[in-house]
Give the backbone structure.
Amino acid sequence: RANVVRLMRRHGIDDYWELVRRSQDDPEWFWPAAIEDMGLEFFEPWDRVVDLSRGPEWATWFVGGKLNIAWNCVHRWAERRPDAIASVGLGEDGARREQTFGELSREVTKLAEALVELGVREGDRVAIFLPMSLEVPIASHACAHIGAIQVPIFSGFAAPAVAQRLQASEAKVAITAHTTSRRGREVPMLEILEEARREAQSVEHVVVAPWDELVAGSTGELPPAELESETPYLLTYTSGTTGTPKGVVHVQGGFLISIAREVCYQADAGPDDRIHFVTDMGWIMGPWTVAGGHAMGSTLVFAEGAPDWPADRLWKLIESERVSVLGISPTLTRALIPHGEPATDLSSLRTIVTTGAPTSR
């Protein structure tokens, strides 16, 4: 019943490794086949799947095509499944919020309009310095909606590290929260951002969650921009532990389609799944979850704070939210082992995605 088996059957392929070989040898066949199978949508079709005329290191994908990640991840689901749960936000204090795709679509559009009113245009950088909460997908998809480039920053960074990324990206707007909680301690995120902002003169505005007052005048009618597939979407930075952080640019077409492919065929997720990845927007698996999970119509579960405070928090989250796809690093796995076997019902869990380091005993 796996998604990848569905793809194989649609194309008369009986062996998984034959699919792998064909995807590598014939990308002109594979990517259109995957896009059709996953149901991803372009506003305008591409002329060429890939252009290698400048060499493989400068490949451009889906040349001539136009699309929008916010449409594929939010607005189309709001039209077809408005009452399906898009996101669940869990506070470290036990608070719980949820949002349907219909609600998410309205909030994304209103914030996108507000960003435009602040002067944000296609190609401008918007820093996202938020805890893992309902505000994360709203901010991320709002940037995609208007073609702005989001710059996620790890929510645990101190002001110097935040400033470094604001400076490097020349962010025009920064989105944050007043505070967050980690291991029972209050983290003053707005205060940290304002300190960092003193070293980053490009930041003209700071948007603070909840941003009800900012979006009060928004109509919610701004359509998602029809963007060239090579339009920059995301600017991520390496950790910088061994030198100056280096930015990596991801584009609307390539990021959506490749990441959706991973969530669909590697994580085997779909509209009936509930995904929780123990990560942060400042690490690449945060955007992976937001873009890939919502592209598949899955429910995303976000959790503020530490996954092991208390020690059984992650297992209780899986039980209470009926998580079916869990993303976890080997490092966290090893850290949880000394706490013993979970004393919770994990029967909902069917897929575990791991990343970040090798798994070893």
About this structure: Residues 101-117 form the longest helix (17 residues). The mean pLDDT is 96. The CA atoms of residues 319 and 345 lie 5 Å apart.
